[in-house]
Amino acid sequence: MDGHLRMGMVNQHKDLLKPGDQCVGGGYYHFDFISNRIILDRASYYFGKPKWHLIEVLRVPSTYRGMSIVYQYDDNYHEDFQVSDKLNIEYVE
Q: How far apart are CA 31 and CA 53, in angstroms?
């Protein structure tokens, strides 16, 4: 709930959590280096799609500074959510 974007190669999304963490959704990611974006999509089996409305500040590893972040819904109903434009981003070490 403190708005940390965690990405990693894990078997299940819950493996990214630290003790005491609450998760507000998950999914998958890939890098689009041509357009300098991190593209998030799909949903976590346990936690569902990200609930962006619950996050005031998204803390992103500083490695990704300068990349835009977008979440692509796969339901042909929602427009892509421009994470970098809609949320306050704080880069952390």
A: 24
79-92: burial string, b at 16+ Cβ within 10 Å, e else: eebebbeebebeee
Statement: the pTM of the whole predicted model exceeds 0.85: yes
User: Residue type for 38, please?
Assistant: I
**Tokens at residue 66, please?**
């300068």
Query: Over the range 34-65, which residues count as b (16 or more CB within 10 Å of their CB) and which as e?
Result: eeebbbbeebbeebebbeeeebeebbbeeebe
Q: What is the pLDDT of residues 49-91, one digit of tens each?
A: 999 999 999 999 999 999 999 999 988 899 999 999 999 999 9
* Three-state secondary structure call for residue 25: coil
What is each CA distance from 85 to 3, 12, 58, in whole angstroms? Answer: 15, 28, 11
